Amino acid sequence: MPTIESTAAALGLWAGIGYLLGSIPFGMVLARVMGLGNLREIGSGNIGATNVLRTGNKTAAALTLFLDGAKGAVAVLLARILAGEDAAQLAALMAFLGHCYPVWLGFRGGKGVATFLGILLALCWPVGVASCLTWLVGAAITRVSSMAALLTAALSTGWMILLAPGGTLTLGIALTLLIFWRHRTNIERLKAGTEPKIGQ
Question: I want to staple 31 with a disulfide (CB 3.0 to 4.6 A). Which of 36, 96, 137, 167 is the partner?
């Protein structure tokens, strides 16, 4: 963990900002603006890029992926520039929780993979790049988005040990555990062999 240097008030402020940024449901917004329907009634009902892709609109899916990643990165970078590393890591955690549990959607959000990757890129870009490549390789081999996400989350801790300052490891482990928790139903489907492949 980083050294706590910010005041409690400053940390509370950045926790709130991180959560609000993370809670913006870009998938839902884009689906509505682009006339793709209600994501809750499509595929898995999830608000993330994988489910947006099930609408058949690759542009919307790519934009959702980018924006969901960007909100996590922006939360980290703003907090780091304006406050410090302790605020940046707290904002990162809260942005992830905001995506997964947005108050606007009854705390029923996404799985957090794109936001997770955006956070890693902002926290320590070599770890972020390695994790993005891990997802791409995992997706290419398995053709299953959730499997690629789980592989990425599991290996991200190793990338942090190899490539990142020690102060990020605690946050990295926490985010990895949250990714696995958010994918618990996917894990059950993977065990049963019923998890859909990318594009299905």
Answer: 36
pLDDT tens digit sequence for 111-138: 999 999 999 999 999 999 999 999 999 9
Q: Retrieve residue 78's tokens.
A: 């703003």
Is 48 within 8 Å of 115 (Cβ atoms)? no
Handedness of CA 5, 8, 14, 19 (dihedral sign): positive
Among the listed residues 190, 188, 192, the one whose alpha carbon sits nearest the alpha carbon of residue 148 = 190
Taking the complete model, does pTM exceed 0.90, yes or no? yes
The domain segmentation of the chain, as residue ranges, is 8-192
Give the residue carrying structure tokens 């904002």: 91
Express each pLDDT in 143-184 by its tens digit.
998 999 999 999 999 999 999 877 889 999 999 999 999 999
